Amino acid sequence: MWILLLLVACAAATAAGARLCLAGVAAAGGAPGERRATDGVELGLYETAFLAGGPRRVTDTALVALAGERRVLLAHTGWVTVIAPEEGGGLDGLHEVQRSLLASAGPDGQAPLAAIRTAHAGTEAVRALGERLVAAGLGVPAAARERLAAGVRQVRGATGLTLAMAVATVALNGSVRAPDGTPALLWYVLPLLLTGACWAVARVEVYPYTRWAAPAGQEALRAIPRDAPPLSALAARGPRTLRDPAIRALLRQARPATRSAISRRRPV
């Protein structure tokens, strides 16, 4: 009986590992050696943000940039308030990503940060940004991202299934041993090693650029110097680079320091 349980665990681990490997190849841009030309592609502030953290990082970068220009206020409650254009210097000179973010605050010019992130991710400006990066060979197509995420979930599921089969083996058979005298539980190390190795490889290959940047995009991100300007550092490495602890905590959705409006001064 325990052999049947072990076979189920091994089959699940093998299928999950294969699916994750195939998804990783797709996310990397196809077969080895297959690359699209990226010459002449300029990696600007919001391109960097998208490759490093997707639409959410794009929104956060635009918010901090607009807050630094006093075009929005970021409240400690997590609400974002758009300052009237005539008070914030008008809309002239704003990037299309910034314009779409201001529109995402709604007709009242005020919305929670979480709602703005969701609305802004679906705007044409952000979608077009992602499509340009994919066309340039720097970004990962949406279908490949979904397959990669599904592969990681399947590996996690296979790990849980293997542990469940091991527990069932103990419950049904006690201290059963293989014909060679080896404890049956030791055989479950094989599928656990497979799923653990796949999980580790996915962690190393994907982190810290998650599923947004193709290998060429990851190379471009690694080329950004550690002493980059504050906004570039935010785009590439996230809120942890911000000097203002209140804004840093707000973007991480942790409870920031108690101030009614933490962007009344320049945040970075």
Description:
The termini are far apart. The chain has 268 residues and is mainly α. It has helices at 2-27, 45-68, 96-104, 113-121, 124-135, 142-173, 184-187, 189-206, 215-222, 230-237, 245-251; strands at 72-74, 79-82, 110-112. A hairpin with a 4-residue loop joins strand 1 (72-74) and strand 2. A 3-stranded antiparallel sheet has the order 1-2-3.
Strand and helix map with partners:
Elements: H1 2-27, H2 45-68, E1 72-74, E2 79-82, H3 96-104, E3 110-112, H4 113-121, H5 124-135, H6 142-173, H7 184-187, H8 189-206, H9 215-222, H10 230-237, H11 245-251
Antiparallel strand pairs: 1-2, 2-3
Helix pairs in contact: 1-6, 1-8, 2-4, 2-5, 2-10, 3-4, 6-8
- Straight-line N-to-C gap: 63 Å
What's the number of extended β-strand segments?
3
Overall geometric form:
elongated
| Structural class category | mainly alpha
Q: What is the number of helices?
A: 11
Strand content: under 5%
Cα-atom radius of gyration: 24 Å
Kindly state the percentage of residues in helix.
Answer: 55-70%
Q: Note the main sheet.
A: 3 strands, antiparallel
Mean pLDDT: 80
Low-confidence stretches: 30-39, 254-268
Question: Which H/E pattern describes the elements?
Answer: HHEEHEHHHHHHHH
Q: Order of strands in the sheet with the most strands?
A: 1-2-3
Notable characteristics:
268 residues; mainly alpha; disordered C terminus
Quick recap:
This protein is mostly helical and 268 residues long. The protein is built from eleven helices and three strands; from the N terminus they run H-H-E-E-H-E-H-H-H-H-H-H-H-H.
